[in-house]
Structures are given as structure tokens and as C-alpha cells.
Known about the structure:
By secondary structure, the chain is mostly beta strands. The chain folds into two domains: 2-202, 2-Layer Sandwich (STM4215-like), CATH 3.30.2000.40; 207-266, no CATH class. 11% of the residues lie in helices and 40% in strands. It is built from three helices and 14 strands. The chain has helices at 11-22, 50-58, 129-136; strands spanning 27-31, 37-42, 45-47, 73-83, 94-100, 107-111, 114-126, 146-151, 160-174, 184-197, 202-204, 210-214, 226-233, 260-266. The strands form four sheets. A six-stranded mixed sheet has the order 3-4-7-10-9-8, sandwiched between helices. A three-stranded antiparallel sheet has the order 5-6-11, with no helix packed on it. A three-stranded antiparallel sheet has the order 12-13-14, with no helix packed on it. A hairpin with a 5-residue loop joins strand 1 (27-31) and strand 2. It starts with 10 loop residues before the first helix and ends in a 6-residue tail after the last strand.
Amino acid sequence: MGIANYFYNSTLRKYVALFGTYFNQMKIQRADNNGTVIQDMIVPISYAPFQKILARVTQDPKFLKGVAINLPRMSFEMTNMSYDPDRKVAPTRKLRKTGVDEEGGGRRFVYSGTPYNLDFSLYIMAKYNEDAVKILEQILPFFNPEFTSTVRLIDGLEPIDIPLILNDTTFEDLYEGDFEERRSVLYTLNFTMKGWFFGPERDKAVIKFVDIRYAPNTLANTTFEEFYSVQPGMTANNEPTTDRALSIDYSLIEFDDNWDYAPEIANTAPSV
């Protein structure tokens, strides 16, 4: 059974890394009352649910201890995967890969991908609402409601467009115990990534010779009256040619060579 053959394209891992890359190296600045920038910082981001980050923060809400985590901070996680029937394509459609199979001389390909929607949540946590808003305003203008990147998911395949859609944004203050003491401000941004999953790589031999035979009718034992054949043509100097007499043997011509079509029409069957 074909589904039992092992393969791994690392596709899901790439989608998670792609999402994190969108929000990596984001900065905020803090200024004094005169508008002079006194602090310029990169907001760290990690793959984790906000509850895990919040638990570490609430151990020291006043940040008096020398802990390894401070706010503001961002985290994200993948929350759901679902099949997308609206983007379904023919499963027998083949996507050719660059390069030729060194052993068999064939072309590598994969069948068309299976569309899936990947749901992500991005969490922006800050001690002060102003810090969280500074991060939020660097994100929202790029999603109307989607932001599309062209990504090469599998080596040898053409890059494909991967849209990331911002579905909604929520805001809440998180407290622990007395409401007079604010713990953190949390903005949650929910996204949907329109991804594809591809099957294993397959090999198919390159067709180098086409033989067509014409008959006056479709009756049994009808004699063929004309023969038409096509093969690649290339001279010994690697120049394309349509003249078979000037061409080297077609079996020596590779797919990515500089060749041309060399047709021939005859009244007798060609010798292959």
C-alpha cells in the first residue's frame, strides 16, 4: 500500500517557523516626558501558550527577583488544523521538480498538495498597555485581512503563495488575586494560514520518442498508410536541430539539454 511508504517533508515544521518569523525582531521604544528615547528593546518571542509564560511572570509580579523573563513578551502556538475543501485540486495533478533522476534518467515529481487551514494564536503580553499597543500597531496595518508570502516548501518545486489571514483580535487584563494589582495586559491575535501538504517524491521516465501510425479506418488488420514520429534533436556541438541526420542518438539527449523537436513522416514504420 502506497501510504505505508516512509517520507517526511518537514512541512508542518516550516509553517510554524514561517509564522514565528513574521513577528521576530519586533522592537518598541520608550521615551521620557521630553520625547527623548531612553530605551530601545527587541520584544522576545517563543513558541508557548500564554498560560505558560504568564505562570513564570506571576511568580514575581513586581519583577524584583533576577528572573530570566520580563515583559513585554510575545508567544504563539498552533491551535487547530482543518481540511479546506474550497481549495481542493485534482489529486492526480503532477508538479514537476527540477533536476533529473541520476540513476533512472527520469523526472521527479510530486502529486498536487492537500489544502489545510492552520490556526495560530499570537499573544502579546505587557505590564503596561502602551507597550502592548506599540507592538500591535506594527502588526495590524499589514493584514487587510491577509498577508501573503511566497515560500519554497519542498526543494525542487516552484515557490507557492501562503496567505496568512488575521481573523480577530481580543484584549484582556489578567489578574491574580486582588484586582487592584494588575498582573499583565494580554492581546490575542488569531490567524489562519492557508497551507498545503505534499506526498512523497516520485520518479517518472522522460518520454523521448513518440511514434504515431495512421490507418484509413478502424477495422481490424487494417494496414497503416503513414507513420509520424518525433524525437529530440541535438548536434554533437550541443546545438538544437530539427534534422535527424545531424542529431546524435536521442537516448543520449537529456531533458535539460539544448535540443529541438526532430519530426519525421514516412510511409514505412521507423526503426527505433
